[in-house]
Specification:
Elements (H helix, E strand, L loop, with lengths): L3 E2 L18 E8 L3 E6 H21 L3 E3 L5 E3 L2 E2 H9 L11 E5 L5 E6 L4 E8 L13 E6 L4 E2 L3 E3 L5 E3 L8 E6 L4 E14 L4 E9 L5 E6 L3 E5 L4 E4 L8 E5 L6 E14 L2 E6 L4 E4 L2 E7 L2 H8 L11 H8 L1 H5 L18 E2 L1 H15 L6 H13 L6 H10 L3
Antiparallel strand pairs: 1-3, 2-3, 4-5, 5-6, 7-8, 8-9, 9-10, 11-22, 12-13, 14-15, 15-22, 15-25, 16-17, 16-21, 18-19, 18-24, 20-21, 23-24
Helix pairs in contact: 4-7, 6-8
Length: 405
């Protein structure tokens, strides 16, 4: 709505077409040497107010993970699927955002994403790291990957003979120290396979520091969704749920006694090499001498457990659900993909094919907002496992879908 004159003359009065007045601000912007724009005060204030509202709204929207009115997720006002596609794309394997489906999780600023054709990831919308010392509130946000359940490769695993070795060097068929939570006794378990392995794929994990009753400190790192035994809950809980003051079980390397230690702190760290071992029997192991489940329970797993189907409650544990979902791997014994005695570090990067396809089947259930009869599914699969009834990968997927209500 400006009137523009042909010469730079800030004293000339020109009216505003919109407001039909001649009350102009006493300044002009000289464009080169031949033109000056005079700005109407009323128009300028209106535009300034609109810009301020948009700026505040934009800043508010970019703080963490948000959901667009069309349904897709945003991080820093950009689609999560497109940001993840750029992370996953390599020179040899291009990934398109249209091939990715993401679902928001209950935990703050996190989403579960499934890539068409294989691959499932947990992502988090967090502030970019900076060397300038800017406060967290002033940094733009970005998508980072978080593994759903893994243990760093350099973590020390306690073996049956009392020695330790890095997880990356543990072999299939090797016996590790595990724990019977019901009899409160140590036991021996066997490493069957590996469900997920990456040797150079940075992800955000959590490092917990523990302290015992004589002030000795211990440390362990796990991915956000990996399960760790909580003495207070008498159940495995995701690492992300661990709070300062909680109690976990630690085995003294000298006496061999298993005793509670207290969580002193929990902090984030980035790990590039990590593994999810498959352990038989009790399904746990001592990582840096802290009792840790070999299983995981993502938000989808928790949602399955919390599903209210026809008002029926379920007492299924996370461990039981996980074991039911991968029953064929236990029945087949040592994984047929590799010969006995293969170091975990020699597995191909990525997810076990069955584990990956199973994740996609579960994602389909939630994509349709369907209910799920958790108790029925777990009872059937664990019965077959206990009775040693042969069960194939297809049987599990069909059972998952058959218990959708």
């Amino acid at each position: 709505h400006w009137q523009v004159q042909d010469v730079c003359s800030p004293t000339r009065i020109i009216s505003c077409n919109q407001h039909r007045v001649q009350r102009l601000w006493h300044f002009s912007i000289c464009l080169g040497t031949t033109r000056t724009m005079h700005v109407c005060k009323s128009c300028t204030l209106a535009v300034f107010a609109a810009c301020l509202v948009l700026l505040v709204a934009g800043k508010r929207q970019e703080k963490g993970l948000t959901q667009h009115k069309k349904g897709h997720l945003l991080c820093n006002n950009r689609k999560v699927e497109n940001q993840l596609a750029r992370i996953l794309t390599t020179d040899d394997v291009p990934v398109l955002g249209a091939d990715i489906e993401c679902v928001r999780l209950k935990q703050k600023d996190r989403a579960a994403c499934v890539v068409s054709g294989g691959g499932s990831y947990t992502v988090r919308c967090q502030p970019k790291s900076t060397k300038t010392g800017k406060s967290k509130n002033n940094r733009p946000y970005q998508i980072v990957l978080e593994t759903p359940a893994c243990i760093p490769g350099d973590s020390q695993v306690r073996l049956m003979d009392g020695t330790t070795k890095p997880l990356s060097h543990v072999r299939t068929g090797e016996n590790v120290m595990c724990y019977d939570r019901h009899t409160h006794a140590k036991d021996v378990c066997t490493v069957l396979s590996v469900l997920h392995k990456e040797n150079d794929f940075p992800n955000t994990m959590l490092t917990a520091t523990f302290i015992d009753d004589i002030d000795n400190t211990y440390e362990m790192t796990l991915s956000v969704q990996h399960l760790i035994y909580s003495v207070g809950e008498m159940e495995y809980v995701p690492m992300a749920d661990l709070q300062v003051g909680d109690l976990v079980l630690h085995m003294d390397s000298t006496s061999g006694l298993v005793r509670p230690v207290t969580v002193a702190s929990v902090s984030e760290t980035v790990v590039a090499e990590y593994y999810t071992p498959l352990i038989d029997a009790h399904g746990n192991l001592f990582v840096n001498d802290v009792l840790t489940s070999a299983f995981s329970c993502s938000e989808k797993c928790v949602a399955l457990l919390d599903a209210a189907v026809s008002g029926t409650n379920t007492n299924v544990t996370r461990e039981a659900l996980f074991r039911a979902r991968i029953a064929p791997l236990f029945q087949e014994g040592i994984d047929s993909r590799v010969p006995l005695g293969t170091p975990l570090k020699d597995f191909d990067n990525g997810y076990h094919p069955f584990f990956d396809s199973l994740y996609n089947t579960t994602a389909q259930i939630f994509a349709n907002n369907a209910g799920f009869n958790v108790q029925g599914f777990v009872d059937e699969m664990l019965y077959k496992l206990q009775q040693k009834i042969p069960t194939t990968y297809r049987d599990v997927s069909d059972a998952l879908l058959s218990y959708v209500v």
